[in-house]
Amino acid sequence: MRPNLFHSGGVLTSAIQAQWASVRAGRRWMLLVPAGLMIALGATLVLTGDPPPARTATVELLGHQEGKGCAKCHEDQYKSWLKTRHAKAMISLEAGKEIGAKKKASFKLDPNKDYTEDPKCVKCHVTAMDKGGYKIGNRRAERAFVGVGCETCHGAGGDYQPIKDKYPKDDFPRADVVKAGLKYGEMETCTFCHNTDEDNPYPEPDFEVEDYDKGLKESHEHTKQKVHPIREGSEWLYEK
User: Fold this and answer.
1) DSSP category for residue 79
2) Which residue, of 13, 23, 49, 146, is most buried by count of CB atoms within 10 Å of its CB?
3) pTM to 2 decimal places
4) Alpha-carbon span 207 to 193, nearest angstrom
């Protein structure tokens, strides 16, 4: 209820005036907070045409764009990845593209048809579709997660990057970041898409260890770290 601002003589007292001013200020603040959030959201929509990609409670993705996300620190790996088939995976789904045309035809898919909005195809040509990453029709998410990128093989960077940030010299314990979600390109990650599942338009019954090794080698340039020694068993990845 609005306070009575007048005493019996009808004159506004300074004490009550101050009280009401405080109440009004409080109400303005309560209105400004949600208004500010709406303005911020509106700015996102105006600038990009889309809301930011959804996040989940346990997975925080960084994305991969030049100078952003994973590429901000791993520039060499990012630039070499751009030249790979994984980076160009979505192009192979576009209509009339030479990349992927033969494979489309071999699986009785129309090379001149656009499959970039077909979820069955797209899920294996992008990073974390509908899991906080790529989202069909969302341009922000499409730019940040197009192609089979870093976090497809290495897990959601936002889950383990906070641990790495605590070590300015990059001498973080590997066991700690692995526990937080860092992956080193396990075979199971590859077979999520390279398989013979019924809904896979590109079944690969012959995907073997050799294919896995070749995929790792071609995924991006592997450069020796200044602090950490090469992981045992992966020395071959660093051979030129």
Assistant:
1) H
2) 146
3) 0.69
4) 10
